[in-house]
Design a protein that fits this description.
The protein contains 3 helices and 5 strands; from the N terminus they run E-H-H-E-E-E-E-H. It is an alpha+beta fold.
Length: 146
């Protein structure tokens, strides 16, 4: 028994009030939810495969979360690259980054993957991701016009 605790009393009389009904929340998981496929643009798949094993495993885990509709555990929006582009931060002995865009219904597009050696992201990496995003948008626009 907790010290200083008294049971709730009804205002009409000194009898103990009826307990409130217990609310039960049921978690419903949709196991048939389809995961969106990953589409690797340019050399992004080869770049991730060149990561050390720890970073490669972490990248795979984080991308799997994105496929399931969740956010990565450590991420940052990259509006400098384009609208909807997100950066997965992989921290270990070395810093690694994976840039992706998940706003399209058909797939999650991995734009670029690289090792980060300084605090700032290199301009060459940002330009490459911008170019791949622009090419992706052009390709989607051309498909839509057909």
């Amino acid at each position: 028994m907790v010290v200083g605790w008294r049971p709730p009393y009804s205002r009409r009389c000194n009898s103990i009030a009826a307990p409130r009904p217990r609310v039960v929340y049921k978690m419903v998981y949709n196991h048939q939810m389809e995961e969106r496929p990953l589409a690797w643009l340019g050399t992004s798949l080869a770049d991730v495969r060149a990561f050390p094993e720890e970073a490669r495993r972490s990248a795979g885990f984080q991308l799997r979360r994105v496929q399931q509709g969740l956010m990565p555990t450590d991420w940052k929006t990259m509006s400098t690259v384009g609208s909807g582009v997100t950066e997965i931060r992989l921290r270990g002995q070395l810093e690694h980054r994976v840039l992706y865009i998940a706003k399209f219904d058909e797939a999650i597009y991995v734009l670029h993957a690289f090792e980060k050696k300084t605090q700032r992201t290199r301009k060459a990496d940002l330009d490459l991701a911008r170019r791949r995003l622009r090419d992706l948008e052009d390709l989607r626009r051309a498909r839509k016009e057909r």
